[in-house]
Amino acid sequence: QFTLAHGYALLKGKVRGLTAGRMRAVRPSAKQVFPSAYEAILTDISGEEHRMAGVVTAQQPWACYSCSMPVLSLVRWTHEGREGFGQSQENWPLDMLTGRGFRP
Fold it and tell me: Are 37 and 56 in contact (CB under 8 A)?
């Protein structure tokens, strides 16, 4: 539901601005809140697309407010045989969690 606000990529020693990006969270089932992986496609200023795959290595819910639960994930990303780590966060309003396998 959101679009890429800003970003850059370091490609072959050169910094390129990003013009677009989309990400998909992969979950084991429709009822799962915590993702197990991510897929990302980023487009740089030359129009070239860069596809990355991310595997979640650690997660923690963070109940920082009474109305939402952000899920923080440490992700191991791979792109063209190279590996890096980053953090991903999804914010779940608590009323959206009803019926997703949580017991009342």
Answer: yes
DSSP state of 95: G
Mean pLDDT of 25-43: 90
In the structure encoding, which two tokens stand for residue 36, read together?
Answer: 């197990």
Cβ atoms of 76 and 57 closer than 8 Å: yes
pLDDT on residue 28: 85
b (16+ CB within 10 A) / e for 21-41: beeebeeeeeeebebebbebe
What is the distance, to the nearest Å, from the Cα of residue 52 to the centroid of all Cα atoms in its chain?
Answer: 11
pLDDT at position 10: 87
Q: Which residue has the tokens 């998909």?
A: 24
SS3 96: helix
The H helix count followed by the E strand count for the chain is 0, 6
